[in-house]
Specification:
Blueprint: H1 3-23, H2 27-36, H3 44-56, H4 58-65, H5 79-94, H6 100-114, H7 119-135
């Protein structure tokens, strides 16, 4: 799968996770709705894995991310940033076939595109520290 379709798949996963969290709707319902808007059939399995993997490992990801937030708490973060960090933490921990630098770069791009002006830098710092800790 080309990196463009992986990037698109990550955007779709983010949209489904955001819709589920903000709209208080079941993730499988949001995933079905999100995937219905695209013909990227080759990306479907990856999107599904990202959505459900991120949700299933949420507590683990939060425990890893929370100590790295420097002056913030998870619940005070913009919703998009929180989801992007959880998704990135899931990929770094459970999708070892993806280069960590790619995971972080993709998370930064999602944060820059869908969140605040400072979000890209912030996500980069948190996930970079997470990767450093994992390497120890």
């Amino acid at each position: 799968m080309a990196s463009l379709s992986r990037r698109h798949a990550r955007e779709l996963a983010l949209q489904a996770l955001y819709g589920s969290e903000v709209g208080k709707r079941p993730a499988d319902e949001m995933l079905t709705e999100t995937l219905a808007r695209t013909d990227a059939s080759e990306a479907r399995a990856f999107v599904r894995d990202l959505v459900f993997g991120t949700l299933e490992s949420e507590a683990e990801s939060d425990a890893l991310i929370a100590p790295l937030l420097e002056g913030w708490t998870l619940d005070r973060l913009p919703t998009i940033d929180r989801i992007v960090l959880r998704m990135g933490a899931f990929e770094l921990r459970h999708r070892k076939e993806t280069d960590p630098a790619v995971v972080i770069n993709e998370a930064v791009e999602l944060a820059k595109k869908f969140s605040t002006e400072d979000s890209g830098r912030y996500v980069n710092g948190v996930l970079g520290r997470l990767m450093e800790r994992a390497a120890r």
